[in-house]
Design a protein that fits this description.
The chain is mainly β. It has one helix and 29 strands. It has a five-stranded mixed β-sheet with strand order 12-13-14-15-19, with no helix packed on it. Strands 3-29-28-27 form a four-stranded antiparallel β-sheet. Strands 4-5-6-7 form a four-stranded antiparallel β-sheet, with no helix packed on it.
């Protein structure tokens, strides 16, 4: 995909097949789920593009350029023209098209099965399913099963479907295309549950193992994932990545990587000179303010320790955090350095490795779904101007190597109104399809499933 400056043009009129009025309704800054459909209509109208019906769902088609972050990328930016003055300034790579494939209730993590089924967890106590077609489109996205306990993520391994809720890993026999009910599931093994950061992200490793990310409860919670020998109870073994050990009489969790405050995204990067490595996004604490500490992408290796909550990565080094009084279970010089930093209060969620030969592969190693936190400038609390919050976006990263520094470059921007702070889309997870399409979920605003295609 050539990298050059260009100007995109979109039509002034929007064709609404749903019969909805093109009038722009007055929307609150915090958009509840029940207004999702109205916001989707508003988004389609304000961007002045076309909303078309398909057998899958309504599809929002855009073709706009992307802007690079100053000093971080060679990508050049221009704004789209011939759009209403109050339209969100959506920007994409040249030649890319954004489509809204389905309106969904609070979708979360994505999983693509070997049979080409796209499965989606949610906060809405349901799991969604759709079948990918050879051209990268989807059949209708339907509810596969309703499950309580927050089914945030899921994977299919062999003939089993595993679903991670806050307090348990569930399993059911699974066949592609076949229906499921709640009664088909059983609890395979308990998880450290509790409040605070309650998402649990599953990943299927290249070794066939099941890996799971979970965060500590708050900023300074005295919780340590690898803390069995230090006397931490099962409920307090949080903050990092677990691996399910299945070789014995009964499955049990083994610590894999510890010291992460709130890891949400997991992705396996193929090895170049060594074994594949597990990448994880980490959401930093709120109590240091708006600018520090940065959010991180780390290599979650077996036995790695990432410092939190006892240490925070600030100004390129690990600094002690005095909000916690207990001693760190490991020394400062044992803490692994991150692979990349993202501005504080960005809330990075899902992460996807860019496939080789993909149009984006020359500029970035991974794409991260940046959700945008509630923190406002300059204090970092929620009481300030909503327009000062970090904007949601899709962000490309070139990860650090022993010889090079990490670089950031945007892939999709313009998802937050610069005056009101209203968020049109909040990316949650990202996944590359076999044809190179980039699928992502948004769990609020115009919530649903989206696809970016590339010429």
């Amino acid at each position: 995909m050539p990298i050059e400056t260009h100007v995109a043009h979109v039509a002034h009129t929007a064709h609404l097949t749903s019969g909805a009025s093109p009038r722009r309704p007055s929307m609150p800054r915090a958009v509840p789920a029940r207004l999702m459909t109205g916001l989707a209509t508003r988004l389609a109208t304000s961007v002045a593009t076309r909303l078309v019906a398909s057998t899958a769902a309504a599809c929002l088609a855009l073709s706009l350029p992307v802007q690079a972050e100053t000093g971080t990328s060679s990508l050049l930016l221009v704004s789209a023209q011939q759009v209403p003055s109050d339209a969100p300034a959506l920007k994409l790579p040249e030649g890319a098209t954004l489509e809204r494939l389905a309106s969904l209730d609070s979708p979360r993590m994505l999983h693509l099965t070997d049979a080409g089924e796209l499965l989606i967890g949610s906060r809405a106590e349901r799991v969604y399913r759709a079948q990918l077609t050879p051209d990268g489109n989807l059949s209708a996205v339907k509810t596969l099963v309703e499950l309580s306990g927050y089914p945030h993520s899921l994977v299919v391994r062999g003939d089993k479907l595993y679903v991670a809720t806050t307090a348990a890993l569930l399993v059911a026999d699974y066949s592609p295309g076949e229906p499921l009910t709640r009664d088909d599931f059983r609890e395979l093994i308990a998880l450290p549950g509790g409040g605070g950061h309650n998402s649990r992200t599953l990943s299927l490793g290249p070794d066939g193992g099941l890996y799971l990310a979970l965060g500590i409860q708050g900023n300074c919670s005295n919780q340590y994932l690898a803390g069995s020998e230090q006397g931490y109870s099962f409920s307090e073994r949080r903050g990092g990545v677990l691996r399910l050990e299945e070789s014995g009489d009964a499955p049990h969790w083994q610590p894999w990587a510890s010291g992460l405050r709130n890891p949400v995204g997991l992705a396996w990067q193929p090895g170049r000179e060594d074994e594949p490595r597990l990448l994880a996004t980490n959401n930093g604490p709120d109590h240091w303010g708006y600018e520090q500490p940065h959010e991180l992408v780390v290599a979650a290796r077996e036995g790695s320790f990432h410092g939190m909550p006892w240490y925070q990565w600030v100004d390129g080094r690990w600094q002690a955090d005095d909000c916690i009084t207990s001693d760190s279970p490991r020394e400062r010089d044992e803490i692994a350095a991150p692979l990349a930093e993202i501005p504080a209060r960005s809330a990075p969620m899902g992460i996807a490795v860019v496939p080789p030969e993909h149009p984006l592969s020359a500029d970035m190693d991974v794409v991260v779904a940046v959700h945008g936190s509630w923190g406002t400038a300059p204090s970092g609390n929620a009481a300030g101007d909503p327009a000062s919050r970090r904007e949601p976006r899709l962000l490309g990263l070139k990860l650090a190597t022993p010889d090079t520094e990490a670089r950031l470059m945007p892939v999709l921007t313009g998802l937050q109104d610069s005056s009101s702070g209203q968020r049109w889309i909040r990316p949650l997870d990202v996944l590359f399809g076999p044809d190179g399409s980039l699928y992502f979920t948004s769990d609020s605003g115009a919530a649903g499933l989206y696809r970016l295609t590339f010429d």
